[in-house]
C-alpha cells in the first residue's frame, strides 16, 4: 500500500528526492484517508469499486484524533498550489499564443 506508506512518501519522495508537489493516491487504494494523509498524501482519488469516498467522516476522524485540522490544511494548501500553477501555465501559453503544453506542465510539477 504505497498510498499509506510513510517511508515511501515522506522518506523517499519528499526528503530523499526533494519533491515538494502534490501527492495523489491511485484509484484503487484500499487504505483510509487518514492513513494516506498521515503518510504525506494530499488527494485521495475515488475508490474504483464504490466510485466515491463520500462515506469518510472527517469530523469523526478529527474527534477521534486520527487527523488534525493542520493535516487537512496542509492537503488543501497543496491542492490550491497545484491549481494556481496550472492556471499560471495556461495563462502563459495563452499569452504566448501557444497550445497548453502537457510536457511543460509535467516538468513544472516535478520541479
Present the secondary structure layout.
Elements: H1 6-16, H2 33-39, H3 58-63, H4 69-96, H5 102-110
Helix pairs in contact: 4-5
Task: Using brief descriptors, characterize the structure shown.
elongated, about 110 residues, mainly alpha, 5 helices, single chain
By DSSP (H or I, 4+ residues per run), the number of helices equals 5
Largest sheet: none
Report mean pLDDT, rounded to a whole number: 81
Shape assignment: elongated
Uncertain parts: none
Order of helices and strands: HHHHH
The percent range for strand residues is: under 5%
Number of strands: 0
- Structural class determined from secondary elements: mainly alpha
The whole-angstrom Rg is 16 Å
Helicity range: 40-55%
Distance between the termini: 25 Å
What does this protein structure show overall?
With 111 residues, this protein is mainly α. The protein has five helices and no strands. The longest helix has 28 residues, at 69-96.
Task: Put the structure in a nutshell.
This protein is mainly α and 111 residues long. It is built from five helices and no strands.
